[in-house]
Amino acid sequence: MIYLRSFRLSCKTVRDPYIYPYHVFAGKAKDWILFDKITILYGDNASGKSTMLNILANQLQIEGKENATHNPWDPYFDQFTKECSYGLGEDEYGRTISKIPPGSRYIKSEDIMYEIKKIQQETVLQEGYLYEHAKKGWTKEQRDEYKNSWEMKRDMENMIYSQEKYSNGETALQIFDDYLNMDALYLLDEPEVSLSPRNQVRLAQQLNQASRFLGCQFVIATHSPFLLGTLDAKIYNLDSPNLDACQWHELENVRYFYDFFKQHEREFQ
Questions:
Q1: Where are the domains positioned within the chain?
Q2: What is the pTM for the complete model shown?
Q3: pLDDT above 90 (res 74)
């Protein structure tokens, strides 16, 4: 299912050419980005791929969206966001959908690392676990009673044991699995962080399955060759002047890996 069909950057300019985020995308607003079930925003550091995801999250008002600046008097990110355009997809009857599905979210690499650290710290883990129960409608009295119960102690021991049993990468894969629900849009910012190459491929295969069978759509910012080569994705190169769509093996970062191992080919023989 495709919930987000298209996106176009603001083509307006401001007097100061260095104002964020106008300077990041200067000259790149010529064409629309057309999304597939999985779409990758590829680019080197400072290419704007994370900024573009956050613009989308703010435009769509989905969980995980962030303010781009801690300065409340800086209007430029909100201004730029409002100047960008997007189009939604169609339902099974060919009608344009009216909104992004509930449960959609913007997931950043630091969100995953925070969840891992939260699991590693018992006090923080306990408070986070109680907070989840509060979100489910438990009263303060119910939470206080549960906090001092043997059930809470058992649940904490189980979660701490799980963290000790698995590496950060395996825990990250489990967190992604917990985050993903059916029929939703997910914006993923560098999900490969903390994952080994093998686990990056496992995650990519998991995302392929979710898009094919669970009705999920993904927009992913990455420059990992393992994700780029495994995901069944449409790829846009933010390093190119016109945000060109391209094949994964044409990308500079992937070619760098290829050339590096080609130089050391004899060592593998």
A1: 4-110+181-268, 112-165
A2: 0.81
A3: no
